[in-house]
Amino acid sequence: MKYFELDTQTYFEEKNLCLAIGNFDGFHKGHIAILNSLKKIAKKENQQTAIMSFNPHPRQFFEKKDESFNIYSKLDKINFLKKFDINIYIEFNFDKKLSELSANQFVENILINKLKIKNVIVGKDFKF
After folding, report:
1. Contact yes or no for 25/31 (Cβ under 8 A)
2. What are the φ/ψ torsions at residue 95 (nearest 5 degrees)?
3. What is the value of pTM for the model shown?
4. Which of 2, 86, 115, 124 is the least buried, fewest Cβ under 10 Å from its Cβ?
5. What one-character DSSP code corresponds to residue 9?
């Protein structure tokens, strides 16, 4: 699995991604369903599977709290995703610049222009 740490300024060369966005802080049935959908769509469309999580978690960024609510450590999460045969893991820096993007700007600037995604999968509780 390839690992990338990105922000709004970094360049990203990978292409043809089927991307799931989420914290994936512990792999419950909902997370597994998202990963299964990701793999199914990526296989059908001949795309790379990719996961994007934010660091820090947006809730930690906005609430300015240092407490961790993750079940898995970053290393645990990466190891789980490797075993699940995910091609790419993207840890995106959640900073002031990213937080100021509108939902449309995020989709256009980050998902389409930077990551060049072809499909995106999110959970039912995902929101901008």
Report:
1. no
2. -125, -175
3. 0.89
4. 124
5. S
Please give the structure tokens belonging to residue 44: 């059908």
- pLDDT confidence of residue 69: 62
As given in the structure block, the two tokens for residue 104 are 């449309």
CA–CA separation, 107 and 91 (whole Å): 17
Report the candidate in 21, 9, 40 with the shortest Cα–Cα distance to residue 125: 21
SS3 at position 101 = coil
pLDDT of residue 22: 87
ω before 58 within 30° of 0 (cis)? no
Q: Show the tokens assigned to 71.
A: 């079940």
Q: Tokens 């990719």 appear where?
A: 50
Q: List, run by run, the mean pLDDT of 10-residue segments along the chain (128 residues).
A: 96 96 82 94 98 83 68 84 94 94 95 96 82
pLDDT at 65: 67
Distance CA 17, CA 90 (A): 11
